[in-house]
Structure formats: C-alpha cells, structure tokens
Design a protein that fits this description.
The complex is a heterodimer of chains A (319) and B (240). With 319 residues, chain A is of the alpha/beta class. Chain A has eleven helices and 14 strands. With 240 residues, chain B is mostly helical. Chain B has helices spanning 3-17, 19-40, 47-70, 72-79, 83-87, 93-113, 117-125, 130-157, 161-176, 178-184, 189-196, 200-207, 213-237. The longest helix of chain B has 28 residues, at 130-157. The two termini of chain B are 31 Å apart. The chains are: A alpha/beta (319), B mainly alpha (240). Chains A and B meet through α2 and α3 of A and α1 and α5 of B.
C-alpha cells in the first residue's frame, strides 16, 4: 500500500506539489492525470525516492521515503519520462546490471533477465547496443529495468510518450500485464490513455489532487450525467417514424432528460438512432424499455468525449 | 558483488569501450615519453635524477588525466538521465561515489603502470634504485587518487562535463599554487599553507624515493575529504 499524507514539495520558493494526500491499495493500477507542469513527475519522483519531500509523510509498502529510503528503493521500480539507459551496453548487459544493482540474487539474475526480456518482447534485440534501439524498444527496455527485480510497486512516468499508435497499444498491454503482481502508478496528460489502462484516476492540477475516482464516475460527475447512443429497429415503420417512436419510448424512462434524433448508424427498414441525455447510467432501463415495446435493440453505447470532460473538470476548478 | 564494485566495473568498461579512456592514456604516455626524453635523456645526469625528472613529469600528466577522466563520472550521468537508475536503486550515495572513484582511479593506475618501460630504459646506461621506483610510483598513485577525488567532486557539483572540468581544474590549480601563497605569508602560517600544497612539498619526497608518513596521510586525507564532499553533494541534491 502507498500512503501519502500532506505531501508538499517546493523548488526554492515555488510550490510544485501539495497539499497532496492519497491512498493506493495493493494491486491497483492508478493513473495520475494532469497537464504539463501539474506536479505529476515530482510526485512520482518522491514515490520512487529520487527526490525527498519538503514536508509530509509518504509511506511505500510500510516504509517511509525519508527515514527508510533504502528499503523503499528496493520495493519500487521506476521508469522516468526519459528512460535511464546506457547506450554503450547491450540490452542483456544493461538488464543484468540493473538487476544486480537492485539486489537480485546473483544466481537468479540470468533467469530473471531472460524472463523480463520475454515479457517486454526484447528477446530479438538482447545482443544489440542500447544506443541503436528505436524509441519503442527504448521505452520497453525502460519498463523492463523497472520490473527486473520484481518490485511491489512500479512507477511509470509518461510511458507512452513519443510512441506510434501500434507501440501505444503494445505498451498499454504491457502496463495492463503488470496488474496483480505489482501496484502500478502511471502518469499521463492524455485522459484516454489513462482510462484505457487504470483502475482509478487522480486528476492533478497545481500540485493538488483535483478529483479522484473511476473514469466512469469522472464523466457522470463532471458532465452531470451520461450521454448514450441508442440504435433500434421498429418493424414496419419508415426511418423518420422509427426515430420518433424510439424517442417516445426512451423519454419515458426514469432518469432520461432528453432524446435527440441522430443519423442512423445502420441502414435498413425501421432503423433509427437517437442520443439520450440521462442523469446517470440508465442503459439497462433503456434496453428494457425497447424490448418491452417489441423494438429490436441494435446498439446501446455510451458516448465519451474524455478530453472535453477533462477540460470541463479543470475549468470547473479554476472558475 | 558489492554495489561499489558493480558500479566501478561498469564505469571501467565504459572507459575502455569509449575512445575517451584509450585516447587519454595514449596522450598521457606520449607526453610522459617526450618529457622523459627531453628532460631526462638529453643531458648527462645521474640515474636517480633522471628518475626524479620522470616522476616530476608523470605527476603532471597524472593530475591532468585524472581531471579529464573524472569530469564525466557524475555530470554525464545527469546529462543523459542515467543517474536516475543509480538514484532509485537500493544503493547508498557513498557507494555510488566510491564506485565511480574506483573506476577512474583504475584507469589512472593502468596508465601509470604502462609508463614502467621508462624507468626500465634507465637500466640500459645506468642503475636504478627499486626503492625510489616503488616510492615514486606510490606517490603517483596517491597524487592520482587525490586529483581524481577533486575531479569527482567537480563532477558532483556540475550538470555539464565542461563545467565539471573547470571546477575540478580550478580547485587543483589553487591547491597546486598554495606553495606560492605560502611565500607571501608570514610565519608560522607559511609552513602550514605550504604543507597543504598538492605537489610541491608533498610530492617531492616521493620523487626522491623518500617515503614519509605525512605525505601518505596528506594525500589520503585530501582524497577522503573530496570524496566525502562529493557524497554530501549527492545527498543534498535529493532535497532540491
């Protein structure tokens, strides 16, 4: 478990983080979301014992980062925004060095290095010099060095920075794969990325936690509701009439504030799409209403515009 | 393997892999060779005097090489962000400093060992006292250790290797020139300041083959002081 109590970090006179308090349970994947300069990296550096807090208490796995930094460092694996890689070593040598540095038993080093090379798909380049690796491989190697000693806590600072779309998908899978064995704290300024990977989100602004919770709650709380697209088929009706029929059925569902017709997402007789504005997640009730009225349910999907939600949250905090 | 040896081994191989280590050793050997030829072989001298001149010249290249080798030790790690790996591993700051020091000092020791052919050349036309050779080399190693620790301290202070070299050189030059300062100071301070000079009074006995405990203690103390200062600088950086 990670416990942060009234953490402050100042650079000179400038407050970068604080007051910040949070609790992270074992096995969770936590996303730290915030704009550039919000204090994410500083918070992560404190968790990784790379930096000491100005005041406050931070306990990682029961150890205090100021009083017992040696113990904390043994339990944490850290990937900074620029992976700490030695270009003059091969991938295999580098991971061996990182493993020994992090106290992996000498007899287990080879085995463990081969394991993480497999996990991070670095096997093909294990004999290659780090300096010749592509950006994607360097990020993978950065994660590999962070988990080579089987840490209880993995701290990843912007792991998808500069990756192409395919590499992002692979990296997402890699981070999700850490679930269970490790407690993971990952930072990003891209809400979509965080929502795809994390169990809980901490939205950080000006060094403080602005909001924390599940991504689904973020939308409902900030947007004060949920937007849902429904596509249904009302047999024997023209498309316009089908839209009106769907709207009439759905507006009667408790919790629905408004129903707007939209272009149908599919073509066919009696098929229409509408957008429902609801106070909460009423997708179950919408389905039931349509089925009860003998209308076929072709699609019920939540409309998510995460970036707008994020912006609304930040604007709400400054207004 | 302890963290100190682990870090030292990595850094030592980094010197050997990069052109830096070999080019510094080569340059130092060329300068030592030229000095030996011009100062020691160009005029009639006693063998002991030739040997003394050799150690005098080698002390200069040793100090220069130590500053150039050590400037990168911590500053480069910060420039390339690799220092984070050491900083977030369960390794103490003193272990980082000692590992780094040991790697650069090993290169200095290797470089010093490669100069052995010059004292051996004296044997062609003269005689050497192996005691003088041994004490002279001990002096070179002690001076090399002190200069390396000064350079390492400069590297701990700076983010850029160039600045690190400038800081290291500045400290080294000030410590070298203390014997001049001593001349301008009244007794009893003049003796005290002269004894603090990095080369003059402390290295000369080694060149002459005189092994004095106070010289050994001086160089060990200087090395200890600057290694401690480098360690404290790293510790302080975690709070910034």
């Amino acid at each position: 478990m990670i416990e942060i109590q009234d953490l402050y970090k100042y650079y000179g006179e400038r407050r970068v983080v604080g007051p910040l308090s949070a609790k992270i349970e074992k096995g969770e994947i936590i996303g730290l979301l915030g704009l550039n300069g919000a204090g994410k990296t500083t918070t992560l550096r404190v968790l990784a014992c790379d930096l000491l807090p100005t005041s406050g208490t931070v306990r990682v796995g029961g150890f205090d980062v100021v009083e017992q930094p040696h113990e904390v460092r043994g339990k944490v694996g850290y990937l900074p925004d620029r992976p700490p890689l030695y270009d003059d070593m091969t991938v295999h040598e580098y991971l061996g060095y990182a493993a020994r540095l992090r106290r992996v038993r000498p007899n287990d080093v080879e085995k463990r290095v081969s394991e993480v090379e497999g996990m991070t798909e670095l096997g093909d380049v294990r004999r290659q010099l780090v300096g010749t690796l592509s950006h994607g491989y360097r990020q993978r190697l950065g994660i590999a060095q962070a988990i080579v000693h089987r840490p209880d806590f993995v701290v990843l600072d912007e792991p998808i920075g500069g990756l192409d779309p395919i590499q992002i998908v692979e990296m997402r899978g890699l981070v999700r794969g850490l679930r269970g064995e490790h407690t993971v704290v990952v930072s990003s300024h891209i809400l979509h990325e965080i929502s795809e990977t994390c169990d809980r989100i901490f939205v950080i602004q000006n060094g403080e936690i602005l909001w924390s919770g599940r991504e689904a709650d973020l939308s409902t709380q900030v947007e004060k509701g949920m937007r849902i697209r429904v596509t249904g088929r009302v047999a024997g009706t023209a498309p316009e009439a089908a839209g009106e029929r769907l709207a009439a059925l759905l507006i009667a569902v408790p919790g629905v504030r408004a129903v707007e017709p939209r272009d149908a997402t599919e073509s066919g007789e009696g098929i229409a799409s509408v957008e429902v504005a609801a106070e909460s997640d009423v997708r179950d009730a919408l389905c039931r209403a349509l089925v009860t009225a003998d209308a076929a349910v072709l699609e019920v999907s939540r409309l998510r515009d995460l970036e707008t939600t994020f912006r609304a949250l930040l604007e709400g905090s400054t207004s | 393997m302890s963290s100190v040896l682990l870090i030292a081994r990595r850094e030592f191989y980094a010197y050997l892999r990069s052109p830096l280590g070999s080019s510094i050793i080569a340059a130092a050997l060329v300068i030592d060779g030229l000095w030996f030829h011009l100062q020691g072989m160009s005029r009639p001298m006693l063998s002991a005097e030739v040997l003394q001149e050799f150690f005098n010249g080698a002390s200069g290249t040793t100090m220069g090489a130590a500053i150039v080798l050590s400037m990168r030790l911590l500053a480069e790690e910060r420039q390339t962000n690799t220092f984070t790996l050491l900083n977030t591993a369960p390794v103490r700051d003193v272990e980082i400093v000692l590992g780094k020091f040991l790697s650069a000092f090993s290169v200095i020791a290797l470089m010093t060992a490669l100069t052995i052919y010059m004292p051996l050349l004296i044997l062609v036309n003269g005689k050497v006292s192996w005691g003088q050779v041994g004490v002279g080399y001990l002096g070179l190693l002690l001076l090399g250790a002190a200069a390396t620790s000064i350079g390492l301290f400069g590297s701990a202070l700076a983010r850029s290797q160039v600045i690190a070299a400038v800081i290291g050189t500045a400290i080294l030059v000030v410590m070298l020139l203390l014997w001049l300062v001593a001349r301008a100071v009244e007794p009893p301070l003049n003796t005290f300041i002269a004894r603090l000079a990095l080369h003059h009074e402390n290295f000369r006995p080694f060149m002459q083959g005189i092994l004095e405990l106070r010289g050994v203690v001086y160089y060990v103390s200087i090395s200890y002081f600057f290694l401690l200062a480098a360690t404290k600088t790293l510790e302080a950086r975690r709070w910034r």
